[in-house]
Amino acid sequence: MIGGSAAGPKAAARARRLDQNAQITIIQKEPDLSMASCGYPYYVGGFFNERTKLLSTGSGILRNPDYYLNTKGILAKPLTEATTIDCSSKKVTCRNVFAGNSEFLVYDKLIIATGSITRMPDVHGRNLNGVTTLKSISDADFLRRVRDEGKVRRAVVIGAGLIGIETSEVLQMAGIRTTVVELLPQILSFLDTQLASLIEGHIREKGASVITNMGVTKFLGKNGSLVAVKLTNGMELPCELAVIATGVSPNVGLARNAGLRIGKAGGIVVDRYMQTSDPDIYAAGDCTEQYHLIIGRNRYVPYGDLANLQGRVAGENAVVGNEVTFPGTIQSGICKVFDYAAGATGLTEDMTKELGYDDTTAVIYAGLDKPGFMNGKTVISKMIVDNRSQKIIGFQCVGPGDVSKQVAQAAIAIQGGMAVKTLVNLDLPYAPPFAQAIDSFIACAHVMENKIKGRMRGITAEDVIQKLNRGDDMFLLDVRTPGEFEALRLGIGETLIPLGELRKRLNELPKHKTKEIIVYCKTSLRAYEAERIIEAHGWNNVAIMEGGIVAWTHSRAK
Ligand SMILES: Cc1cc2nc3c(=O)[nH]c(=O)nc-3n(C[C@H](O)[C@H](O)[C@H](O)COP(=O)(O)OP(=O)(O)OC[C@H]3O[C@@H](n4cnc5c(N)ncnc54)[C@H](O)[C@@H]3O)c2cc1C
């Protein structure tokens, strides 16, 4: 195995379990093995203090060369870089990173797991003290020192993807005033705009700043140390720390030089057996591109769960022949953002548009993850369904509730090819400490079913805002209680008629039965009841604002 962090050691361990006689060697450029890189932000943020936990098994055993040799009979060679692969003579040239001397290793089967490299913006001043990435364990060490010393007051994180957002959270929580700068119009591009805006709002509530639609042009320094980051609009953000988190690219130099096929998404091309264009060479993890199970072509998805799963398949096939397959990805991801989580699986609505899937239906649903009496917390979900097959093809979820469970359920439903008619009756485990009797995911599917059967017309908060900006003639109806209205209202020209009074006060609705009525409540559950009543009395242009006030992303009156 070339590469000793996630995919490489996973492949080695699997190969060993299935073949006790194979001679297995891991070549690893860095000093450490099996680093839990996904844990770096939480080490930096002080969620735990023992650095060795990043390098240990769940039982606390350090995964060093002795561990690999004694427990697994695997020779692990840290500080050793593979410099060339000769496919015809099946030899790998390795160089000792310190001493510089080289040696050859011969193989019957080779697994490449060289990971990714950080995409660095071409910006002057990247070498100043205080400019870093969060990619390696030494970056994590540096940032943890910064946190512990408490001298840095202001930080800028460049890039609002998963790692950028996780990093900004832990820096802000450490008392460092943090600004996230993102080139795209929104943060976390695995979410559609509305859900991303809800997360952005939460980040701001926690005191961090977010600047979107903005690039970085320069790191400004004084005496070799960072003093500010200059933005494309000329503004300078004074700071002592900048973390570059502008994404990663597959590390394919070694594979490319060996003549292996590199794909359009930039990664090593592998088949379902994780075999490269050379049958004796497998590849796994961030250095490969993955088959996307929904869109039917390769994409680059550098995620730790995929690296481990693929490593396992590559390791097995390398020793027993091609027996198992890794079918592909649906790009499931999640991250913690202060008191919220944000997760997604499958396609976003933006992706469906980009890819030309024009026949889809989306709904936004807000609910609680548990009953109110068990302190249920809000989850705001968006489900996307293909109209022809009525199968779920995408799901996103944000909020303080159990987002992970919602996204996990959706990922299984998408991979299982489930249609809405199956989702509406899923038999999931239920007891009040864990879930609602009808879980939020199923309730979201119920709303979807109502929508695709034409039983309700939904409208997003964003569309309502557009209508307001255009000055459209519409009647906005809030059906919550006066107490709720007093405490918080949207202030968009709405009329309050509580649901319990609606049947008696229908005369307060517009005279013309064709006038558009947009109805909402806290989550729009009561709004659905209201819509049914109003439509039964002859109004025929009624829409429910999906997700209600909970999913409203714009300013409110109170
Ligand atoms: C801060 C951070 C947080 C993350 N959080 C998450 C998360 O929450 N969820 C998630 O799914 N993913 C997360 N990821 C991504 C996840 O860590 C990667 O997808 C995963 O580590 C990929 O594993 P890999 O083995 O393919 O590559 P890597 O982990 O990058 O390992 C590749 C190894 O190969 C070595 N190497 C490269 N070239 C050579 C060579 N020529 N010779 C010898 N060795 C070589 C490298 O030094 C490296 O150690 C996170 C990543 C980071 C950095």
- The computed structural class is alpha/beta
Figure out the total of helices. Answer: 16
User: CATH class of the largest domain, please?
Assistant: Alpha Beta
**What are the bound molecules?**
flavin-adenine dinucleotide
Number of E strands: 29
The overall pLDDT average reads: 97
Might you state the CATH topology name of the largest domain? FAD/NAD(P)-binding domain
What is the percent of helical residues?
A: 25-40%
Which parts are unreliable, with pLDDT below 50 for 5 consecutive residues or more? Answer: none
The count of domains is 4
Largest sheet: 5 strands, parallel
At the fourth CATH level, what is the homologous superfamily of the largest domain? Answer: FAD/NAD(P)-binding domain
Main sheet: which strands, in order across? 8-15-9-10-11
Query: What gyration radius follows from the Cα positions, in whole Å?
Result: 26 Å
Task: Quote the beta fraction.
Answer: 15-25%
**Distance from first to last alpha carbon:** 59 Å
Q: What's the architecture of the largest domain in CATH terms?
A: 3-Layer(bba) Sandwich
Q: Shape, please?
A: globular
Keywords:
558 residues, alpha/beta, FAD/NAD(P)-binding domain, 4 domains, 5-stranded parallel sheet, 5-stranded antiparallel sheet, 16 helices, 24% strand, globular, binds flavin-adenine dinucleotide
Structure in words:
It contains 16 helices and 29 strands. The protein has 558 residues and is of the alpha/beta class. It has four domains: 7-117 and 249-320, 3-Layer(bba) Sandwich (FAD/NAD(P)-binding domain); 131-246, FAD/NAD(P)-binding domain (3-Layer(bba) Sandwich), CATH 3.50.50.60; 339-452, 3-Layer(bba) Sandwich (FAD/NAD(P)-binding domain); 458-551, Oxidized Rhodanese, domain 1 (3-Layer(aba) Sandwich), CATH 3.40.250. Strands 8-15-9-10-11 form a five-stranded parallel beta sheet. Strands 20-21-24-23-22 form a five-stranded antiparallel beta sheet, sandwiched between helices. Strand 13 (225-231) and strand 14 (236-238) form a beta hairpin. The mean pLDDT is 97. Flavin-adenine dinucleotide binds at residues 2-8, 27-30, 37-38, 40-41, 81-82, 113-116, 134-135, 163, 251, 254, 285-286, 302-305, 307.
